[in-house]
Design goal:
nine-stranded mixed beta sheet; Carbamate kinase; 8 helices; 239 residues; globular
Length: 239
């Protein structure tokens, strides 16, 4: 069984689409405050928190490439969208009293620090939330893979994926009312059964580095704190 408590250091993956709240695109300031307060509750437990955010609420590189845009250009544009989300979240966290740093894989020193592993770990040790933006800095890699990579690099005890669904199902619960939710499942079964939790590269990287993944709903108030406290929320992958 996965040891969930006490956590010392974790990496949370937030989808960019979560930032749009009820809007069709962009950032919903009210929902951003909600996310910041949820993270604050988890941070108050004394857990070191790293965050990776997607950019789908602003720009989706894969979709743009499918519609004729050069894939590399599209991916870099998507990376810049994650920086916008990271800066917005940093501002929201600072306003609720949580000290935060943004580090980017593409250097833009006027708005954020460059990604330096030792510096990131030092920030975490000082109790700062570190937001990792701009993906891996390379095209063809998703923010899911970025999350798995950063989790391995900072030696996180778990990778938490906060989504709109309350866990991993054997099929899409939106399309299939009889979909069955897993309480626990192995990394390998996620890959073999194409369960679409994260892309296969991210799941494989987590499996190779023995990093459990916890998938849970961000929409349920208090879930981040409850997961960090060791409650059996969502679905546990690996362990």
């Amino acid at each position: 069984m996965i040891p969930f408590t006490p956590f010392k250091r974790i990496l949370i993956k937030l989808s960019g689409e979560a930032f749009k709240g009820d809007r069709e695109y962009g950032i919903d300031p009210k929902f951003l405050v909600y996310i910041a307060n949820e993270l604050k509750e988890g941070h108050a437990l004394g857990v070191q928190i790293g965050v990776v955010i997607g950019g789908g609420n602003i720009f989706r590189g894969v979709a743009a490439a499918a519609n004729g845009m050069d894939r590399i250009t599209a991916d870099y544009t998507g990376m810049l969208a994650t920086v916008m989300n990271a800066l917005a979240l940093q501002d929201a966290l600072n306003k609720v009293g949580v000290e935060t740093r943004v580090q980017t894989s593409i250097e833009m020193r006027a708005v954020a620090e460059p990604y330096i592993l030792r510096k990131a770990i030092r920030h975490l040790e000082k109790g700062r939330v570190v937001i990792f933006a701009a993906g891996t800095g390379n095209p063809y890699f998703t923010t899911d893979t970025t999350a798995a990579l950063r989790a391995a690099e900072i030696r996180a005890e778990a990778l938490l994926k906060a989504t709109k669904v309350d866990g991993v199902y054997d099929s899409d619960p939106v399309l299939n009312s009889n979909a069955v939710k897993y309480d626990t499942v192995s990394h390998m079964d996620v890959i073999k059964n194409n369960l679409k939790v994260m892309d296969s590269t991210a799941v494989s990287l987590s499996m190779d580095n023995k990093i459990p993944i916890v998938v849970f709903s961000l929409l349920e108030k208090g879930h981040i704190k409850r997961v960090l406290s060791g409650e059996p929320i969502g679905t546990r992958i690996g362990g």
